Structures are given as structure tokens and as C-alpha cells.
Amino acid sequence: MNKKINAGLKITGIGCGQCGTQIIAEIEKAVNLLDGDKSNLSFIGINTSTEDLSSVSLSHKIHINNSKGAACDRNKSTEALAEGIDEILEELQSYIIEDSIIFIAFSYGGGTGSAIAPILSGILKEMGYTVGMIPVLPADTEPLKVRDNARLTFNEIEELKPGMGSIFILDNNASDKITVNKVFASLFTGILCINNKSQDGNMDLAEIEACLKCP
């Protein structure tokens, strides 16, 4: 018997940059294999690169206009986001499930996700959403520029942490990237399938939401 989605749990997943969109796409792929009503779930990818966006399967995709990619340059992504922020937010809000908990996935070291994820998180928090994160630590073998991006991004996230939802940190040192993404997607969809049926007791919707909103 397939696991069944908890229809009362409202979740919006947003992937920023190549790494983030791959994670959210992996979660959506796992969700699509499950039974139950999925109308309270939404999965979105945002990127500066049209090539990267076309390489993932997601229900909703947003390209940051006038951008051809970031090439690990956070400033390029920040500038591109600033130029089109009103249009991007309008489109993004059309995909966000009302009253949902939002999880933003991104790489600490990338040029796009590391730059725009903290900005979007701050904006969405100010708009009243509960925002959690799924950031990915770069492997120790990656270039210095990537690791310096991670340092800058970490400091920005530290400033956001009061009032944030849960932050699930993935580590590319643990295994290859594809395996890390698939394992996390499996674990995350397991949370979406908690339906108060266990020989050990019940976990109601309020308790699930409290866990996901816990900073």
C-alpha cells in the first residue's frame, strides 16, 4: 500500500538556483508517487539560468529576466532580482499555497541560490509567511569562491533566524549530490505522510506544523 499525503498539511517548496531546484524537483517527484489529495502542496523553481530551469521537472518555474546565469557571482543574481522583483513576487505569490509553510532550498555556495534565497526569505517573512530553509553545504573540495559564498550566505541567514521555521542543512561532504537529494526528498515526503496512525500514538496536524515551524 502506498503512503498517503496528509491533506491538511500545507507546504510550498521553492528551489533557488540549480541546487535548490534539483532538491525541490526531487521532492515533487517523490510526492507524485504518493496517494492522496495534493492540492495543498506547491513546488516552484527560480533561477537566473534558463538552461538550468529546463533541466528540471517542476510544476512551476520562474526565470529571473535579463539574466543568463550567475557563474558563482552573488552580485549578478542580487542585481537581476532587484530589477525584476515586483514581477517575480507577483508570479511567485500566484503559486504559493495560502497559509502554507514555505521551504526554500538552495546551495550555500552557489551564485544564484545563495544570493536570492536570503532576500526572498526576508521578504516572505515580512509578508507574514512562515519560512523554513533547506540549505546545502558545499563539499570541502569545491573552489574557494564557492566556500566564500557560503560564508557570506551563512551570515545573512543568521540575521534572519529569529522567527524562521525549521532549517534542514544538507552536506555535500556526506555523499554524492544526487544521493543526498534523494535521501532528503524521501525523508521530507515522509513528514508529509504523517496521518495520525501509529501504534505508538498520534501526532496531530498542529504538532506536525509546530515541528516544521520550530527554528
Quaternary structure state of the chains depicted: single chain
H-E order: EHEHEHHEHEHEHH
Average residue pLDDT: 90
The end-to-end distance, rounded to whole angstroms, is: 34 Å
What structural category arises from helix and sheet content? alpha/beta
Tell me about the largest β-sheet: 6 strands, parallel
Strand content: 15-25%
Question: What ranges have pLDDT less than 50 throughout 5 or more consecutive residues?
Answer: none
| DSSP strand count | 6
Structural summary, described in words:
The chain has 215 residues and is an alpha/beta fold. It is built from 8 helices and 6 strands; from the N terminus they run βαβαβααβαβαβαα. The protein has helices at 17-32, 50-54, 74-83, 85-95, 113-126, 144-160, 177-192, 205-213, and strands at residues 11-16, 41-47, 60-63, 101-107, 130-137, 170-171. 46% of the residues lie in helices and 16% in strands. It is globular.
